[in-house]
Design goal:
Order of helices and strands of chain A: EEHEHEHHHHHHHHHH
Strand content of chain A: 5-15%
Distance between the termini of chain A: 85 Å
Structural class of chain B: alpha/beta
Number of helices of chain B: 10
Largest sheet of chain B: 6 strands, mixed
Oligomer: heterodimer
Helix content of chain B: 40-55%
Radius of gyration of chain A: 35 Å
Order of helices and strands of chain B: EEEHEEEHHHHEHEHEEHHH
Largest interface: A-B, 14 and 23 residues
Strand content of chain B: 25-35%
Distance between the termini of chain B: 29 Å
């Protein structure tokens, strides 16, 4: 092992000879070597530069720190033969640090008790929730007040981006969901020889719940995140500020077209989702369960009336509103950093899916009470 | 008596317990190029954002061209142009469309004239047709600033705000940009307020300098500012680069 230090005592003076490479990479060994040194009765400590090959700032700091430690013990310390540059720079930093007042509790702060943190967090979150509600109301009202002349074009673009472009994926997912439901219900119904009721099960759940719910969740993942990320990036890029100084109200041209576009797009998307779900059910019926297309449609016409379709479709604008508002406003809340952008994009998606499910539960309760 | 383009009275800006501006007064005169300097955290950007109505000050009143500025409320949008530090071009639009946007917004002129005017502004800032069709992400930093300047000039504003126009540009591009700003100022009857760290810009083209120190502002001609005894000002203008720039100005 390389020796970094040799200590010798002579006439009440501890002589420490510093040698070899004092470099950043060797710091663990250096600290260990320094820790071993302890003066007994000596009153003076001399650090000598003998055989020192290389010396960098970090290890200079270690050595200097050690000398301060000795001085705190009431010893006199001295450096001999070192290049002045290292210590001069250190001294500069130390002087600057000394000028700044000691901040009480900066290093020795005790963590707050967990219950206090929990209460603080609860309060913060409550305030945040109230604030967001106010912000949402303000932005939407502000945007609606004086519609921008770019409104129609932007809205159509949003309908395309959030609705038309989402048709393939939403249709595929719903088709597969139709297959899954047809299979699962067939497995149970087969026991009673009541295969044909598969149509009732699939059609009712697709029209009333699954179609709109899947479409909304896919859109939340696709467009909710896109809204938050796009608006957040615009905020970070000062693009939102640029709009404002040009006399454009960002609420009007960024939020309203997205909300409006999605409110129009999602019900239409739901129609595609419903059709694809039924197709999935019919496909399984025809290929596996001996229910041909004709039987399927006959049973479908018998079990479904327009109410069932409307129940599903009526939820779509509400879900769309929740997704668009959450996404855009989370995006507008981005202020400072890329990290915040990522966090708020995640929040936008998670929160909009959460809100969709909560709203769906409310809808189901209300509709069943009303007897739809 | 010279006309006052911007007047700020008793501006106070606080962040938590930290006061950035304390009873700050500032007047910007017609036709001048005012350079705003200050250390980091001295509130240059906050001052600019307050003037533009993007920041809500704790107290004080700001008037631009006689119109009171209120937070996030419509201001004299047709009469000011702003170049943000990074250009802040809308990323979804080409340079041409970016420059056309304010024109489309504030006037009813025909599409053809709008196109031509936008191209004029783009040419004026030293860009060419190939740049006009590009998206901001396809441009270099210097070109983005020029495009941002073209957009700021789209409505022939009376006031131009520049936020660190030469930051991040190489010395040649920075000098060219300074020359461009100075040229535009001479020819377009513009009042320019610019935040800058570039001492060459400061000595090269600014008529007056506003220094943010001690939560307040000192505004004067360069010669008087350099003679000011405030320690920060002394350090700033005592810097070798500032000395060289000053000497260059005196030699001209």
């Amino acid at each position: 092992m390389t020796e970094y230090l040799t200590a010798s005592s002579k006439e009440g003076t501890l002589e420490i000879n510093v040698q070899n490479d004092w470099l950043f990479n060797n710091i663990p060994d250096l600290t260990e070597a320094l820790d071993r040194i302890m003066p007994d009765q000596e009153r003076n400590v001399v650090f000598k530069c003998g055989g020192l090959q290389e010396f960098d700032l970090s290890s200079a700091w270690l050595l200097y720190d050690k000398s301060l430690e000795f001085e705190e013990l009431g010893l006199d310390t001295e450096f001999q033969g070192f290049r002045a540059a290292h210590f001069k720079f250190l001294q500069h930093i130390i002087d600057a640090a000394a000028v700044n007042e000691y901040i009480p509790g900066f290093f020795d702060r005790k963590p707050d008790p967990y219950w206090q943190k929990a209460i603080e967090k609860l309060g913060e979150n409550t305030i945040e929730a109230v604030e967001s509600a106010g912000y949402i109301a303000h932005a939407v009202l502000d945007g609606v007040k004086r519609p921008s002349r770019l409104l129609i074009g932007e809205t159509i673009r949003q309908i395309h981006d959030t609705g038309v472009a989402a048709i393939p994926i939403v249709a595929t997912v719903c088709f597969l969901m139709g297959i899954v439901m047809a299979y699962q219900s067939a497995l149970q119904l087969e026991q009673f020889g009541a295969n044909i009721f598969m149509v009732d099960l699939v059609a009712n759940s697709i029209f009333r719940e699954i179609g709109v719910l899947l479409a909304a969740i896919m859109v939340a993942g696709r467009s909710g995140s896109a809204f938050a990320a796009a608006l957040g990036t615009m905020k970070l890029n000062e693009e939102v500020d640029a709009l404002r100084v040009m006399g454009l109200n960002p609420n009007q041209i960024l939020i309203i077209p997205r909300v409006l576009g999605l409110v129009i797009a999602l019900p239409l998307l739901t129609l595609f989702a419903n059709a694809a779900g039924l197709a999935g059910g019919a496909f399984i019926g025809a290929t596996v369960l001996d229910i041909n297309w004709l039987m399927f449609t006959e049973r479908l016409a018998y079990t479904i009336d327009v109410n069932d379709v409307l129940v599903g479709l009526s939820k779509a604008p509400v879900f769309a509103f929740l997704i668009a508002v959450t996404g855009t406003l989370r995006g507008m809340q981005v202020n400072s950093s890329a990290e915040e952008l990522g966090r708020l994009t995640t929040v936008a998606v998670v929160q909009s899916i959460f809100l969709i499910i909560v709203a769906d539960a409310l809808f189901t309760i209300i509709y069943s009470r009303l007897g739809f | 008596m010279t006309e006052k383009i911007i007047s700020i009275r008793g501006l106070v800006n606080r962040f938590g317990t930290q006061t950035v501006h304390d009873q700050l007064d500032l007047e910007v005169r017609r036709d001048e190029i005012l350079g705003v300097v200050g250390g980091s955290g001295s509130g240059k950007s906050v001052l600019l954002r307050s003037i533009l109505g993007l920041h809500n000050p704790n107290a004080g009143s700001i008037e631009v061209l006689g119109q009171k500025i209120r937070y996030q409320k419509p201001g004299p949008h047709k009469d000011w142009g702003v170049l943000f530090q990074s250009g802040a071009l809308l990323s979804g639009l080409t340079v041409q469309e970016n420059v056309e946007l304010p024109i489309a917004l504030h006037s009813n002129m025909s599409l053809e004239i709008r196109r031509e005017l936008a191209i004029l502004k783009i040419f004026m800032t030293g860009l060419d047709m190939t740049a006009a069709g590009k998206y901001p992400s396809e441009l270099s930093g210097g070109m983005r600033k020029r495009a941002g300047l073209a957009r700021a000039l789209a409505l022939d504003p009376k006031i131009l705000f520049l936020d660190e126009p030469t930051a991040g540009l190489d010395p040649i591009a920075a000098t060219e940009f300074d020359e461009l700003v100075s040229y535009l100022h001479d020819n377009l009857d513009l009042t320019i307020v610019m935040i800058t760290h570039d001492v060459d810009t400061l000595f090269g083209i600014c008529n007056r300098v506003a220094v943010l120190v001690n939560k307040s502002i000192i505004v004067d001609t360069l010669e008087n500012i350099v003679a000011n005894e405030d320690p920060w000002i002394q350090e700033y203008f005592g810097d070798p680069r500032a000395m060289r720039a000053r000497k260059a100005m005196q030699d001209r």
